[in-house]
């Protein structure tokens, strides 16, 4: 289905052509003076030079050609040469009725979908999740869902940090604490115990303890590096321990991500490409891409047009150890082989900008990807506390994700039960759903690259540009529909079948209808620009338009059945679009709140 604004533009272009001007001048945009008009066209201004004519004359010529338009209710030529338009009520109503019938409300989807992998989350196994990982998960999940809704084949890959020094540290600390474990007996030939010798909470305590020790004790750190090396070379006891660490951690990670409504199709990690590294290194050497510099193996990635210093991409350290780069390049190679993606999207803190620039250039230059494979890094800003500094606990430590979520759940629960009798269990459940909207919307409504202030009071408010406000609007629509259903003893489908959206009867209703009509454009832009904040801005506008309509209209008590049926259709469409949009943002609405 064509986008609403495109249909309007086409009509205006036809008018330009009919009046003897270049049709390209007829492009229409949203009005920046909504008090005067709904849409505007500045083409006559641009045409003035071309036709050596006063712009207002051109505008008048064009306006005249719109007199019998099926699209425009009014077209005004105003000085110095703008065209101000309002669209016809029946044109808008027809468009909305068509949207109701079409899959995805008429959104155009590609015949040939792109294959996309989104690399997000990126937690490090056995290290507790902290708020830094929150943004990657939230934004990545939304980008994935938007691309999928836009009709593409998308896989989300968590890309676990599961192969680094932290694993060696844990193994070393375990050996200190329980040296008698069979895993450390290098002559052991039997089976290793199926149950892990630690729980998740022990594991979470072991890593920070080991990390702290390694900073003070060089000998301890050497042992941890040795353990990492042994693990990577495949010593069976260490591998068996690693399996346990993975099993216990991944189960815990799954639980955490599930609470965030974040779901990965692929649970791959750095370890998965370990065996591909030697082959890749040989290839890079053989093709002459990689060379030794100061003992390390590197690939030059600087380009003549660079305005900043782009250091070479290091493939192997001088001791032969691989790096973060190495696993990322091997992962790219693996992904190309297994999934042939057209596009790879990475979500990390923007401090990794330069890093990804190096990796991407290296992958292109060394032909690990096709020339047309798109590599995109979305670097997000920092989540700050109210003091403008990176978010911390009250005591000043790194805030753990679980605690943060708990805090917001509690705050939401308090708000929901304030002055109200609510069933305890339902209140807890609702609090969780609303809290998630507060966290996610608070994050996603900002342009990803910007830092933002995590403000619990603001994010959990039922008013303003917040997740709870959007949910509140959805719940309001649901409750009106329920009341009408009860009143008429009908179910929604029966109501829906009999009904269609009528011409707007008020300014507020028209404004709501025009907001709805902008759905495809909003979704398309959010996809093309990988910008979930565009969806937030769209639904905030839609929710505002709905609430204004609601306050001015007595829907439930309306006596004219036709009018009321038309409103039911309008409400259902508004609700469905809002729910679709929050679903691509990664949260949902409760039935009541
Ligand atoms: N584990 C990394 C970190 O915590 C993030 C991984 C991002 N993805 C990637 N392919 N490098 O910083």
TrEMBL record:
Residues 2-87 form the Arginyl tRNA synthetase N-terminal domain. CDD domains: ArgRS_core. GO terms for biological process: arginyl-tRNA aminoacylation. Its EC number is 6.1.1.19. Residues 470-593 form the DALR anticodon binding domain. PANTHER family: ARGININE--TRNA LIGASE, MITOCHONDRIAL-RELATED, ARGINYL-TRNA SYNTHETASE. This is Arginine--tRNA ligase. The gene is argS.
